[in-house]
Amino acid sequence: MRYLILTLIGLFATSQLHAQQDNSNIAASSTPVNGGALYYDLDFVHCTVGFTIGHMGISDVSGSFSGFKGALVYNTEDLKQLSTTFVIDVGSINTNQTWRDKDLQSAKWFDKENHPHILFQSDEITLTDTGFDWKGQLTMKGITKDITLNMQKPSGYVKSYLGHHLAFKGSTKINRKEFSIGEDTWWNNVIEGIAQLDDFVEIHLSIAYQLQTPEFIKSRFYENETVLYEAATTSGVDKAISVLEQQKEAYKNKADKNEDGFDAITGQDLNTVAKVILIEGNYKRAEQLLLRNMESFPQDDTILAELASFYLRTKQPDKARNMVLKCLAINPFNAVALEMKRRIINKV
């Protein structure tokens, strides 16, 4: 896998799951936090972040965002402990019309150039007959407002060869004008009593989370990740770093860099390897790999987030705090680091 955790945090309070926390089948993303919270990967291929807005009172325009990252805290026995940080990439908007997508990214609407991200951070949970209301702060175009997501009850806990899964569905309505979205456009005109575009937008979410097994992660290794893993486990960290440098040089000199689906060598290659090694119980080697990886890719915020996760798992909060701050200095919208900041710095 080429991407880092981009992750979700979940808390399982059952004795069976607590027992699994020290088991080698727990993913490296399973970092105990606040009494047992676990980090989960975002199963983004099974997620939807969509919206619908009324057009001229007779039809709707729908769209979605394909780029998002998140972190989640979940407790099966106490839903009120649910907490999340969610970041959406404005540039990933898709309404099936290229011209409209480009227009929506302009300063008149979402203003991608100055405000490339949409941020939601939850505050509290109120239980309802059908699920729960998830209250929090939504930030778009530099404007922050309180909103409430009306969520269904979370799906059941599911195990498969891929790992552990759960999912949430919900929706809310917001007034786009409160966020200065399309506020000064022709579409706000009322012609013959008909609004060209509604003020209120319905947002609907279907989000899946996954705690992956080491077997599944290794089955998805790129060829170069397999080589790195074998070097790290059989010959040690120095050998793995040497192999990584050789891979970087080979890629640099490669004429066709897209040949055979061979992608660029990035910090995510060694991150993925370190994740599996951590799962397998070799904490010292995993830490060494991550620290050396940070030296090779000092501006990769996801490596710093992975290190923060590692230190949180190994009960080193001061080191975790340091990595969180370094991560956010590089990328203020790293969702994992933002949620960890609330947990270990702001002590939410």
Largest sheet: 13 strands, antiparallel
Mean pLDDT score, rounded? Answer: 80
Number of separate strands: 15
What general form does the structure show?
globular
First-to-last CA distance: 31 Å
CATH class of the largest domain: Mainly Beta
* Helix/strand structural class: alpha+beta
Domains (count): 2
Percent of residues in β-strands: 25-35%
How would you classify the quaternary structure? single chain
Q: Assign the CATH topology of the largest domain.
A: Lipocalin
User: How big is the Rg?
Assistant: 22 Å
Which H/E pattern describes the elements?
EHEEEEEEHEEEEEEEEHHHHHHHH
How would you summarize the topology of this molecule?
Layout: E1 7-11, H1 15-20, E2 37-42, E3 48-55, E4 59-65, E5 68-73, E6 83-89, E7 93-94, H2 98-104, E8 117-127, E9 131-140, E10 143-152, E11 158-160, E12 163-175, E13 190-191, E14 194-195, E15 197-212, H3 214-219, H4 223-234, H5 237-252, H6 267-279, H7 283-296, H8 301-313, H9 317-330, H10 335-345
Antiparallel strand pairs: 1-2, 2-15, 3-4, 3-15, 4-7, 5-6, 6-8, 8-9, 9-10, 10-12, 11-12, 12-15, 13-14
Helix pairs in contact: 4-5, 4-6, 6-7, 6-8, 7-8, 8-9, 9-10
Describe it.
The chain has helices at residues 15-20, 98-104, 214-219, 223-234, 237-252, 267-279, 283-296, 301-313, 317-330, 335-345, and strands at 7-11, 37-42, 48-55, 59-65, 68-73, 83-89, 93-94, 117-127, 131-140, 143-152, 158-160, 163-175, 190-191, 194-195, 197-212. The chain folds into two domains: 7-212, Lipocalin (Beta Barrel), CATH 2.40.128.110; 221-345, Tetratricopeptide repeat domain (Serine Threonine Protein Phosphatase 5, Tetratricopeptide repeat), CATH 1.25.40.10. Helix 8 (301-313) packs antiparallel against helix 9 and helix 9 packs across helix 10 (335-345). It is globular and about 75 Å long. With 348 residues, the protein is α+β, with helices and mostly antiparallel strands. Strands 1, 2, 3, 4, 5, 6, 7, 8, 9, 10, 11, 12 and 15 form a 13-stranded antiparallel beta sheet that branches.
